[in-house]
Amino acid sequence: KKLEQFDSLEFKNVSFRYTEQLPYVLKEVSFCLNKGQQIALVGATGSGKSTILRLIAQIYSGYEGSILLNGVELSSIPTNQINHIFSLMRQDAFLFEESVRFNIALGKQDMTDKEIKAAAEYVFADQFIEQLPNGYDFKLDKNGSNLSSGQAQLISFARAVAQKGQVFMLDEATSSVDSMTENLIQKAVKRLFDGKTVIAIAHRLSTIRHSDEILVFDQGRIVERGTHEQL
Ligand code: ATP
Ligand code: MG
């Protein structure tokens, strides 16, 4: 049966190691993300936060325990169905040596200029894109190195909006950005979250505040959970 609508994602005692020779980086992790909910993952570097999103996106397999998507074991679901439901905004933005337009439309190259611009506008990326030489046709260098890290993030946000995923997975970058871009990113994140199902690795307090539940990770385990007020 094909997955059409996201309903819930449940981690049940999930443990994971990248290879059998390496130590576990997730240890009996349990949580549930329901439709319309927003969860923030916080914790020290290396505590396993990005690994959670990589497992959901099926970038890695071989977890122990259970990850249920609408009650169905994730490992039995084809990756193209997963990609249809989840939009992953990675820490490094994951940009291609192609135009801005290509990077936003990604895989949906029949998308119109109007749709691409609307997605960029939604996350406040439109203004700086218009100012680039050739605007939306501006060609990115490898890994978007001819953009600032904040601009690269905004393009990855625009991509997520354009792809119309049902669940946004945000791995917020830690790199510092100038205060003007920081302001745009905060506004963009607020909009991205608005009325959506979100699982976000959050570094900004402004992002964390908007979440229904915060999961605190330490060395692969959830050591605390609750709302911003409770923690
Ligand atoms: P950060 O806040 O720095 O992004 P994180 O909480 O996202 O950290 P993860 O990237 O999930 O941490 O990494 C968890 C652990 O898994 C770390 O010890 C890391 O070194 C290890 N790890 C991550 N990716 C791999 C990989 N591809 N192969 C082997 N080990 C990895
Ligand atoms: Mg990470």
From TrEMBL:
The ABC transporter domain, residue ranges: 9-231
Domain of life: Bacteria
Subcellular location as annotated: Cell membrane
Protein name: ABC transporter ATP-binding protein
Residue window of the full protein shown: 338 to 568 of 593
